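Look over both lines before class:
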Amino acid sequence: MSPRTPAWVALAALLAGCDAVPDKPTAPTHKARPKAIASPAPLSPAERLAAALRVVPVGDGRYAFGKDDKLLDTPFGPVLLRHGHAPDAGHPEGGVIAAYYLREADGGFVLAKAFPEAAMSGSFGDLAKWSVSDKFATLPVLVVEGGGTWQGCTVGDTDLIELRPTGPASLASIPTLFDDSGMAQDNPQSLTGSLTDIVRDQSFTVRYAGTRSFAERYVRRGDRFVLEGGESQIPGC
């Protein structure tokens, strides 16, 4: 203390310090975290198929569609395939595969493009068999089998139809059945072909057995598979 400072001034300063109230500590601030919004559970395969069926046309009544619908996930989006048969059709009429290109939206689908007759084959209102294969091309390929008997001659074809972003397109139509025993008086023929030795986007071979045994090879040229040699040994009716 300076010798010039009065004693009473020093005492007042000391008492003022004793009465001072310390600042209250600042309470920490906590920002409220936003609540996480749960994503909807993904649809099961059956639910996805049901959602796809809700957005496609019901048809004009000409064909009845069965329970073998397929929903494909392709590189360009979902595609719904439906197999239809005509219940009251005559001999020349076949069955159909309809293709519907879809787009996912709001947990479901919307229709982008419709191809109600993507494939037609067979007789008496229906085709024989159909499936989807990844063996013939990078894109999915419809394999459709159909045929019929005309005046004692039975023929069958296998059609390969590629599902392209722009729509279904024919890759090849291969004769896989021939039997003229119902019309030929002499030397009837019976031949059945099987598609084998498949090399994706390149080639495949059709091996025939029956009255004769031989093989024919198809090679991809651009957008189609073409028969080497240009003409099949399978006769016409």
